[in-house]
Amino acid sequence: MSREVTEADSLPMKRYQALADDVEASIRTGVLKPGDKLPSVRHITASRGLSPSTVFQAYYQLEARGLVRARERSGYYVLGGARRIPPELESPSNPADASIPVDVSELVFEILEASMTRDVVPFGSAFPSPLLFPITSLGRFMASSAQSLDPWSTVDDLSPGNAELRRQIALRYLAEGMQVRTDEIVITNGALEALNLCLSAVTRPGDAVVVEAPTFYAALQALERNGLKAIEVPTHPREGIDLDALEHAIVRHKPKACWLMTNFQNPLGSLMPLQKKQALVDLLARHELPLIEDDVYAELYFGAQRPAPAKAFDRNGLVLHCSSFSKCLTPGYRIGWAAPGRFAKTVAREKLMTTLATSAPVQIGLANYLERGGFDKHLRKLRRALAEQQGLFAQAIGHYFPSGTRATRPAGGYFMWVELPEGVDTLRVHRHALSLGISVAPGPIFSASRSFENCLRLNYGHARDERSEQALQTLGRLVSGS
Ligand SMILES: Cc1ncc(COP(=O)(O)O)c(C=O)c1O
User: Fold this and answer.
1) What's the whole-model pTM score?
2) C-alpha 127 to ligand 1 mean position (Å)
3) What is d(CA 296, CA 190) in angstroms, rounded to the nearest whole number?
4) Site residues for ligand 1, CB cut-off 6 Å
5) Which atom of ligand 1 is nearest to the CA of 216?
6) pLDDT for 7
7) Is there a contact between 120 and 433 (Cβ–Cβ < 8 Å)?
């Protein structure tokens, strides 16, 4: 596995972001007003010496930020309410420089179990709306694969899994310019099983593992269940984990692995730039430290192309890449995989020793869907829906939440991390909101030290309707303390 960072990878990223930031500043200061048309792509191309694709990229980003909207064959226009969108979170987190035991599971269960009902407005949910998935078309592939099932598939498709499904996954890596061999891939019951298997492959009880601050609560639960300690490392809301702080933590606390999300991190939504991914992989290689890379959201990008994972730069087999179809195609089918580099054999054996295999008919049905079902077309539609919903959601937060609120503006996925004014206790907000039929994910469940008391992760992956509008209004009142 190896991928060079080219100038084309890094420069346009900075340029389109700079252009998007400039236009946003003009909107916030009122130079550009609601209804105004943005300068044409041709005009900006000439005046700033940028390529048309860089300008389009900037305008897509402004659209995802909820500031502008494209009108067919006319151009981009500033939206009403654009100035109200909350300012972006800019500072990295600042966790204690320590290796600490993890004890969050009870809190996580208490909060999540209460929210697991369809009657609740699902701002705290980890899934986007099930209505965004091609259930009927998938069902046809499942039915026909179950009907024509080769009886020997129960044997053939034992771990590491169905050969055709692994080939389809390898083909998707190839389309991203990555060479991942079919025999490196282990099919699992969702990404969570892949992550857990990888964690057991590279750690022993008592070891310490680096995580981002904040991090996905299931990562903390996995550490807790395996008797591992967490080293929480400062993480930037836009660019991911701080590499200097990471190196310091490696030298000081001697972790045995890192568990990170480089693309649309849960809960922040941060996206690590390509050069930083390469630097991360180089740093970990110098310390011979495995990286468990949780990459379940990468397909949900709003930009021009799927962001490469850190795995793309791995030359030493140290990156254990984990993903699934749960977030982008079908949560309930529970199909995920690991591409665990030099640990592939250990992970496949761990799988055999724990759950033996993943359902054969579902693996085969999914392989057939990937080959002929129109996955990419579905993804294009899904990404457009999520990007649009993010913009609307950000506007509503700007409208209903108190001043002093800041929020991330991820370039993909369906989570927004909202920082409320100091003193707001989001565990209390969660309890109160739930009693009114609204779920939220309070900040402390994303941290081994139960920090981020005044933060919330909100899910914008469900279409806006009357009920969710009212729920956001209510939530705004609760976090304002009224
Ligand atoms: C960051 C992250 N990783 C992994 C998972 C689990 O994925 P799966 O449902 O495929 O097991 C989730 C689900 O919420 C997630 O948010």
Assistant:
1) 0.89
2) 9
3) 10
4) 126, 190-192, 216, 261, 266, 294, 296, 324, 326, 331, 336
5) 1
6) 39
7) no
Terminal Cα-to-Cα distance of the chain (whole angstroms): 55
Ligand 1 center from residue 83 Cα (angstroms): 34
Question: Are 235 and 214 spatial neighbours (Cβ–Cβ below 8 Å)?
Answer: yes
Q: Per residue in 251-262, pLDDT tens?
A: 999 999 999 999
pLDDT > 70? residue 141: yes
Contact predicate 293/258, CB 8 Å: no
CA-to-CA dists, residue 319 to 183, 199, 285, 421, angstroms = 16, 12, 9, 38
> Which is more confident, 410 or 88?
410
Amino acid at 388: E
CA distance 482 to 453: 18
- β partners of residue 45: none
Rounded Cα–Cα distance for residues 319 and 343 (Å) = 9
Tokens for 126, please give them. 């980890």
Residue nearest to atom 6 of ligand 1 (CA): 192
Q: What does the alpha-carbon distance between residue 241 and residue 63 come to, in Å, rounded to a whole number? A: 26
As a whole number of angstroms, the distance between CA 14 and CA 125 comes to 32
Token look-up 């269940």 returns 225
